[in-house]
Write a structure and sequence with these properties.
2 domains; 10 helices; alpha/beta; elongated; Rossmann fold
Length: 309
């Protein structure tokens, strides 16, 4: 703006002579006001960025347990006897648990006809939240409900050096009877793993929808297939693992009960974290910006006209 004004004045004649003809003009005053505005603008941007400087560290001790969440992703988990469906409600439960947990390390296993470790034990709960968005029956090509394999894989995913501080939360409709489930649960408990089970669905069950035929699934005899929650299976696993069985109705309520049980376990020292304390300096730059704007506003760009008699 100043360069444009200066070039326009040059076209009128010599700058020294032109300045003497401009009434009320104070040499350099507009330039000074522009500099003040520039300082205010730059200082405001730096203040908004909130510059910080490390001023020390603090050592914080963390205690917790290792928790593996084993989630059934078989096609029966798409049944809609609880809305919107069993799998969606199970995911809500896991997210609610993560919101309530603090220092525990958490891992995720999914299973149907086979079991897979999706997220190893970690304190990065965001990794599990992100993985849950894509979890579904398509991730496991072999269908079924191999709870025994899920327990075995979960056991291997824990530290093999410890005989405690470990918990497994198994979420399933327990539809297919797995003969290995209870023996594996007993073996897991002997290795220090407390097993809690969560039943998803209703004992009355419901028919299954086939997305390919867009109709109800039928068995070989042409009868509708009804998927039912097998509470006896899940209760037996929880009993073998010395944990509790919970029926999923209210996700937040069940999550609270599970986290309460986990928090009541003997906890181990998970190490320490060093948190740096920072000092912020944004207020100084904002004060400079305010001062520059105030001075710029108080300075007149032209001389005041003298009062006429």
């Amino acid at each position: 703006m100043l360069i444009w004004r200066k070039n326009r004045l040059k076209k009128l004649g010599q700058q020294v002579l032109v300045n003497t003809q401009l009434q009320g003009t104070i040499p350099g005053r507009l330039t000074f006001k522009f500099i003040l505005l520039s300082i205010a603008f730059v200082a405001a941007i730096i203040g908004w960025a909130n510059l910080q400087k490390g001023s020390g560290t603090e050592e914080v001790q963390r205690k917790g347990v290792d928790v593996i969440i084993a989630l059934d992703v078989s096609k029966s988990m798409l049944a809609q006897d609880i809305q919107p469906n069993r799998l969606a409600r199970a995911k809500q439960l896991i997210l609610s648990m993560l919101d309530k947990m603090k220092n525990d390390r958490v891992g995720l296993v999914i299973f149907a006809g086979r079991a897979y470790l999706q997220v190893p034990l970690t304190i990065d709960y965001s990794a599990i939240r992100m993985m849950l968005q894509n979890v579904g029956p398509d991730l496991v090509p072999t269908q079924g409900t191999v709870i025994g394999d899920a327990i075995e894989l979960s056991e291997k995913s824990f530290s093999q050096k410890e005989k405690k501080y470990k918990s497994l939360v198994l979420i399933s409709d327990g539809e297919d009877h797995d003969e290995k489930a209870i023996p594996n649960a007993k073996d897991a408990f002997e290795n220090g793993i407390i097993i809690h089970t969560v039943g998803v669905g209703s004992p009355e069950g419901t028919t299954l929808f086939d997305p390919e035929t867009k109709a109800v699934k039928l068995d070989d005899q042409g009868n509708p297939i009804v998927s039912k929650l097998n509470e006896d299976e899940l209760k037996g696993i929880a009993s073998a693992g010395k944990g509790n069985y919970l029926l999923l109705r209210n996700a937040d309520e069940v999550a609270g009960k599970l986290v309460h049980e986990i928090d009541g376990m003997e906890q181990k020292n998970l190490g320490s974290l060093m948190f740096s304390n920072y000092t912020s300096y944004f207020q100084y730059f904002l004060a400079l910006a305010f001062a520059a704007l105030t001075i710029e506003w108080m300075i007149f760009g032209k001389k005041l006209k003298p009062k006429t008699a």
